[in-house]
Amino acid sequence: MVHGGRVTDATQPENSLAPGLYIVATPIGNLGDITLRAIDVLKRCDGIACEDTRVTGKLLKHLGISKPMWRYDDHSEHRDRSRLVESTRDRAVALVSDAGTPMVSDPGYRLVNDCRAEGIPVTVLPGACAAVAGLALSGLPNDRFLFAGFLPSKEKARREMLEELSAIDSTLVFYETAPRLIKSLTTIGEVLPDREVAVARELTKLHEELRRGLPAGLIAYFEAHPPKGEIVLLVGPPPERVASEEDADAMLIDALRTMKASQAAAQVAKATGVDRKTLYARAMELRSA
Ligand code: SAM
Fold first, then answer.
1. How does pLDDT run along the chain (289 residues), one tens digit per residue?
2. Atom 8 of ligand 1 has which residue's CA nearest to it?
């Protein structure tokens, strides 16, 4: 048996799964990325809750599995969700999304919470996730990253979200659609022009592509080569702090030759990552010396 944990129930007929909810990750493109454990649970469960029965039906057909499917998303009627929770009391129900890991910008959150509240066992079968695959392929710093779902489609909200995230010392990971890529890159270029950006497209598929550069260069590339398919957009962390105070001081002295103290502090802060207020105080000191 390829799965671990509490999935075999001695009170059930041989080969059936213990009742409960099984969160099952599925491939994000390449069907070879299904896990052995996912196949096992999909074969042996009593039914599958899914976003779109046509999409999941194709995966099941590929695997040679035939199971009852129930459409589920977090907007499903409360009554439908309650019914699904009830059925997990004496049946093994697998939860899948169209692709990747359920609940990562996909439905399932309410269902898992309701099962937990009812004391129903919940088991997770990890697997493909576009955010993690994109992060790995990008080569951007990954000791810390923040996944923020989709950027808003409205320009003002998108800008506000990027401004809010700009101070975070982590790689930022977003889901994106091809038609909106240039708009998002443009806002990133305006709010975070010096950040290294990566566009991970069609991960695990035939036309997998990774492009990395500053926002302006990526905009020029994708204007010339309009993107297609699915995209993970990543923004590298703020530039590292300068190694020495002397370097920042020298840049500040130079900037003060042509700029007001506040402008000089802002420019040096952007270039070095040193706190703007600290630099402003130092600029005032230099001016009065
Ligand atoms: N739950 C899924 C997961 O674990 O990756 C994500 C679902 S979300 C609704 C769909 C978004 O994920 C797409 O718009 C795209 O941004 C990203 N995505 C999914 N598959 C992808 C792939 N093969 N390559 C790049 N991005 C992908």
1. 444 455 555 555 557 899 999 999 999 999 999 999 999 999 999 999 999 999 999 999 999 999 999 999 878 888 889 999 999 999 999 999 999 999 999 999 999 999 999 999 999 999 999 999 999 999 999 999 999 999 999 999 999 999 999 999 999 999 999 999 999 999 999 999 989 999 999 999 999 999 999 999 999 999 999 999 999 999 999 977 554 778 788 889 988 988 899 988 988 887 777 888 999 999 999 988 8
2. 105
Within-domain flag for 6: yes
Q: Which of 128, 163, 181 is the C-terminal boundary of a domain?
A: 128
CATH of the domain at 6: 3.40.1010.10
Q: Are residues 16 and 109 in the same domain?
A: yes
Atom of ligand 1 minimally distant from the CA of 104: 1
The sign of the dihedral angle between the CA atoms of 75, 78, 83, 85 is positive
Tell me the residue range of the domain where 266 lies: 245-288
The number of distinct structural domains making up the chain is 3
User: Given ligand 1 and candidates 132, 231, 233, 234, which is best to mutate, with the most ligand atoms within 8 Å of its CB?
Assistant: 231
Residue 233 alpha carbon, nearest atom of ligand 1: 16
- Cβ contacts of residue 204 below 8 Å, gap of 6+? 27, 28, 29, 30, 33, 128, 133
Angle CA(267)–CA(271)–CA(272) in degrees, nearest 5? 115
Atom number in ligand 1 closest to CA 174: 16
Domain assignment of residue 47, yes or no: yes
Token pair listed for 168: 């975070």
Give the residue whose CA is nearest to atom 23 of ligand 1: 203
